[in-house]
Specification:
By secondary structure, this protein is α+β, with helices and mostly antiparallel strands. It has 2 helices and 5 strands, in the order E-H-E-E-E-E-H.
């Protein structure tokens, strides 16, 4: 039998993105449905990219396409509970970025869910992979996980 790793802690993430849950996020069981966590991840990453000046939704020549994502659920959350998505850089490749994310109930220190999200950068016109843009590469330095 293996021990389950301890839940991620909010302090382990250099960036925090508050998000309000919506009535539609709850499922028939009265908690936030699993698909909503992926939307939380997508919202946090893209909001951060826009704030960093690394993404212009209509005009950036290089765009990140999601090629992989995953989530481990630890405990349920429910509307109208607000959440915070913690975000950090897991890996920076030539044309890809892997983020580690965790969803926390507002005011809570232990993650309710933990996951990852990988973008591959492509030329908007051709769809062919391109290097991660320099401005984004510089901004990502602020998301590196600090030594613990």
């Amino acid at each position: 039998m293996t021990d389950k790793p301890a839940p991620a802690r909010l302090a382990e993430f250099p960036h925090h993105c508050p998000i309000s849950t919506r009535w539609a996020d709850n499922d028939a069981y009265g908690h936030v449905n699993n698909v909503a966590y992926y939307a939380f991840f997508d919202t946090a990453v893209n909001k951060w990219l826009i704030a960093q000046g690394a993404l212009d939704i209509a005009a950036s020549p290089a765009v990140g396409l999601v090629v992989e994502t995953g989530c481990r659920y630890r405990r349920p959350l429910a509307y109208p509970q607000d959440v915070v998505v913690g975000m950090r850089l897991a890996k920076l490749g030539n044309s890809s970025v892997r983020y580690e994310l965790a969803v926390f109930g507002a005011g809570e220190e232990e993650a309710a869910a933990e996951g990852h999200f990988t973008h591959v950068y492509v030329d908007r016109g051709t769809g062919r992979p391109v290097p991660v843009p320099d401005a984004l590469r510089r901004a990502l330095e602020g998301l590196r996980r600090s030594a613990m």
